[in-house]
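DM between two lab members

TW: hey, do you still have the DUF4825 domain-containing protein entry open?
JB: yeah, one sec
JB: this one, 160 aa:
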Amino acid sequence: MKKYFKFLFALGVLMLFLTGCENKSLYPMKTDLTNERGLEKLIGSIDWRPYKLEDYKVKNKSLEIKLSDEPDISKDESFKTGFINGVIILILTDAEEVWYIGEDLYFSFIDKEYANEPLKFKYGKEVDDYKKSKEDFDNLIESLKNEKYEAGAAKFEMME
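TW: and the structure you got?
JB:
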């Protein structure tokens, strides 16, 4: 009986560990701009660091996101955060464009056309292609996080 209990206990601990280490994908939060609760959950789950999410508004097919500024952030880091989060929103919602509002933001706007250029060049797919597959979406976001970004002339290492 003791061996059986130890086995069940070990199995339970293993299940908890594996569940806790699971990759938390944003893909299941896919929603449209009219679903206020779903949109709030998605926007709140995105990593906005080093910025702080203040508020957001939906205007037609546009999403305005208000961020608090971070004076110690580099242009490159600002560009990376804005680009990646904009791509996430464009893929997981029906938004056509994302505007960032705040003081001293280096990246203020992204739309499907702007996002499609580097995505198609580097990965061979566009925003709408990533809406169809959780695996493709997760792989894209992981790849984008590992890319090097240079602001200023909007130069990506991935574009070279």
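TW: got it. DSSP finds six helices and six strands in the chain. The radius of gyration is 19 Å.
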